[in-house]
Amino acid sequence: MKLIKRFWQIVSKPSVHLSFGLLTMGGFLAGIIFWGGFNTALEATNTEEFCIGCHEMSDNVYVELQETVHWQNRSGVRATCPDCHVPHNWTDKIARKMQASKEVWSAVFGNIDTREKFLAKRGELAQHEWDRFTANNSLECKNCHNYNSMDFSIMSERAQVQMKMAAERDQSCIDCHKGIAHNLPDNMDSGEGTLAKLEALATSGYDKGQSYYSVRQLPLFTDKTLTTEAGQLNAATKVTVLTVEGDAVQVEIDAWRKTKGFGRVMFEDFAMNINDGFLTKEVAQSDDYMEKGESKVDDLTGLPWQKVSVKLWMRNSSLTESRDTLWTFAKTTYDSSCSVCHTQPAENHFDTNTWPGMFNGMLSFVNLDGDTQALVLKYLQKHSSDFSDEAH
What we know:
Blueprint: H1 2-12, H2 14-17, H3 20-44, H4 48-51, H5 55-58, H6 61-65, H7 81-85, H8 90-108, H9 115-135, H10 139-142, H11 157-169, H12 194-199, E1 211-214, E2 218-221, E3 229-233, E4 238-245, E5 248-258, E6 265-269, E7 272-279, H13 281-284, E8 290-297, E9 304-315, E10 319-320, H14 323-337, H15 355-362, H16 370-382
Antiparallel strand pairs: 1-4, 1-10, 2-3, 3-7, 4-5, 5-9, 6-7, 8-9
């Protein structure tokens, strides 16, 4: 009992028995030991070996990862579980670890301890991660993939168009790249590859003076050598062929644009946000490629609009004579993909300018490539209440 009392006296009033310097040094060493132990334990839980320590991960998502480019590629750089699913900065890492403590509870009670349970829960688990990537603008992806470090010149023409648009907006990677490291949940249909089949149905030859429609998003150029970029044509946009020269065609695009700012976005009709494509800043400000027509003010928004006729070049491909073929594909995709979580609204349930916001909300639950997204959205807008006799 005397020893306990003596110990308490020393602990409760250490400065009476120990020097201030010794206390400071002891506290410093204790801090190092504590911090070192804490950080060591933290890093031990931040390894791939720890992540796949339970069979729920090792037998499901880890197996899928090994079949992707993030596992084996020509550069020899492998992305491990923590690289993609744990924030690299310390404060966010701690918050993520606290959040992940729920997974321990789930493992103890066997919430996904079988393949069947995992697949049934997969949609919910995936959505949690997609929401996190959306909230932090795909921070973990951008720790390795940086727009400023990308060499667009070695990308395919299609990839160049998509990635440059994404870079301009600093777009979140997860918007377009769901399912890049793991399989998608059941019933999440993807349009990838399907639109390429539709492109094969495009008209093979084009006549001067005839009108056609773009099958997908297509790059535009200022010259027939197709070397200087001028912008991008959106899917299902009407063009009139002016000249055909080998692999290049000169086309005319009749559109409207908002004159506030650079006026880079082309719209199909006045006061309707039906995107026909966009122009580079240089082309949008130049009179060499554009004829300007009447100007009007949208009474609803107060924004000035201007009618324009743009003449540019594009590749001699990917145009079709019939928009109905495109609408058939778009409707099938909309009916099959956007009814996964609920009964999707009828096309004429919203007006033209409401559909973009509604459709973007649906994209969180489906996996459609950029071309298919653009085509389906234009289909919905062109069949909205503004164009329907049975408008809601």
